[in-house]
Amino acid sequence: VYVKPFRYERADTLADAAEALRSHEGGARLIAGGQSLMPMMNLGLVEVDAVVDISRVAEPRGVTDDDGYLRIGALTRHRELERDPLVSTHQPLLASAARNVGSARVRNVGTLGGSLAHSDPAAELPLAMTTLGATYEVTNGGETRTVPVEDFHVTYFTTSLGEDDVLAAVRVPKLGPGWGWGFVEVSRRPGDFAIVAASALVRLAGGEIVESRVVLGGVSERPLRLGAVESSLTGARASDVPKRVPEIEGLEPMTDTSATGAHRKHLSRVLAIRALQDACARAEEAA
Amino acid sequence: VTSSATPVSVTLTVNGRSVTREAGGHLTLLRWLRDNADALDPKYACGEGICGACTVLVDGQPVSACIVLAAQVDGAEITTAAGLLDAHGRPNDLQESFHRHHAAQCGFCTPGMLMCAAAMLSEGTAGSREEIRKGLHGNLCRCTGYQHIVDAIEECAANEAAATR
After folding, report:
1. A147 touches chain B (CB under 8 A)
2. pTM of the entire structure?
3. Alpha-carbon Rg of chain B, whole angstroms?
4. For range A43-55, the mean pLDDT
5. For B94-134, what is each residue's pLDDT tens digit?
6. Range B77-96 burial, b when 16+ CB lie within 10 A, else e
7. Coil, strand, or helix at residue A251?
8. Rounded Cα distance, A24 and B137, in Å
9. Degrees (nearest 5) of the Cα angle A256, A258, A260?
10. Taking 70 as the threshold, does the pLDDT of residue A1 lie above it?
11. Which residue, A154, A202, B3, B107, is most buried by CB atoms nearer than 10 A?
């Protein structure tokens, strides 16, 4: 299949990109790495009048230290997240999530902003960002606003980005003292989309869980934070985790060619437990 | 809705040869290489970046040429399997190793396998069979069952390691 011809435009700044989106009145898409958009165009799932290439925009890319936070440019490639020393030191969960994205070829080209804006419910990076409680910087050229992660990912392949909005950067809090992290997924082969992925953060004090965040990917329309599980874990010791994690209620994951909904449901609890156990072990190691 | 593909001038260095063409800005790197630069070794198969048959090196890094626009990599150096040949046009050590180990059957996946293997060898990530298999997980072969491909890369990596010791 060949893609339907479209105009190619290159933006020099994100403000130019927003302006180009406005001038095409919904007929244009941004392309950065293109690792989600190009397959969809090759398969005939997306047709556009124009693509606006932001891959050569100088800012924002790379990771910078911003007090208690890391600020990560939307054009940062997955490969850079995997290898960035600031990420490895201050938020290794994110490096682990990036390592689970696609093949090496995808990670060489694909960008953080592209993955987040694509908002595939099984994708690793929206899951990691939800776990970390990230905030997203969104610009339309005129004004820049901050969007909390839970207001950004709306449903399957849908975000709260407006027609001329561009995701510019992401801020994630650094891993604090006493915290540990876990990121696990099951897929048919390494590099495939996760059948189910789970991601967790845990803070231990005196060997007991005092705070936790646990989120599932691949089982719902967007990353699913397990608030009830988090509350039931308060005061638990690491060894208690399996019996303190209840059946996850209200979960009706989809059946597709990779797994049945029932299998996904089973994996949800198993992987949540494993991610939490890994997080506890790392918190203990750090202590 | 009308769409017009405006021609975009793209210059790529393909296996050491500079090629400039005005062509539709919607052309993928793969189609550009095959239609404009006579580089027929990278293959179109899945169109989703999953199978690896279109793998080429862009400035030394493996990329799925079917899901990147040529215009996006304007100015880059592209290496395809043909670019691995030595200065006399003979197969290089990796290609020889594939030959020796019968690592190609129908041959469709081979150019992509070679490029991913070449990247692994230059990055030093072909240190064990497990590592090689991990590096090849994005390349599908429907004939050989991978054993001979892994054998070929393993031997080549071992020879390179021995030569630099």
Report:
1. no
2. 0.95
3. 16
4. 95
5. 999 999 999 999 999 999 999 999 999 999 999 999 999 99
6. bbbbbbbbeeeeeeebebbb
7. coil
8. 39
9. 55
10. no
11. A202
When pLDDT is averaged across residues B31-55 and rounded to a whole number, the result is 96
Smallest CA–CA distance, residue A233 to chain B, in Å, is: 36
The three-class DSSP label of residue A283 is helix
Q: Which of B31, B62, B72 sits opposite A34 (nearest CB)?
A: B72
Please give the Cα distance from A94 to B103 (Å, whole number): 37
Cα–Cα dist B93/B102, whole Å: 14
Of A7, A48, A104, the CB nearest to B135: A104
pLDDT at B3 over 80: no
- Do the beta carbons of residue B72 and residue B11 sit within 8 Å? no
SS3 A130: helix
Closest alpha carbon to A38 in B139, B49, B52, B43: B49
Tokens of A284: 């203990």
Strand pairing class (A208-217; A196-205): antiparallel
> Which run of H or of E encompasses A63?
strand A63-66
- Count of A-B CB contacts under 8 Å: 104
* Averaged pLDDT, A247-256: 91
pLDDT at B1: 35
For residue A152, the distance in angstroms to the closest alpha carbon of chain B comes to: 26
pLDDT in tens, A70-104: 999 999 999 999 999 999 999 999 999 999 999 99
A166-173 and A69-73 strand pairing: antiparallel
pLDDT band at residue B4 using 50, 70 and 90 as cut-offs: low
Q: What is the pLDDT of residue B145?
A: 82
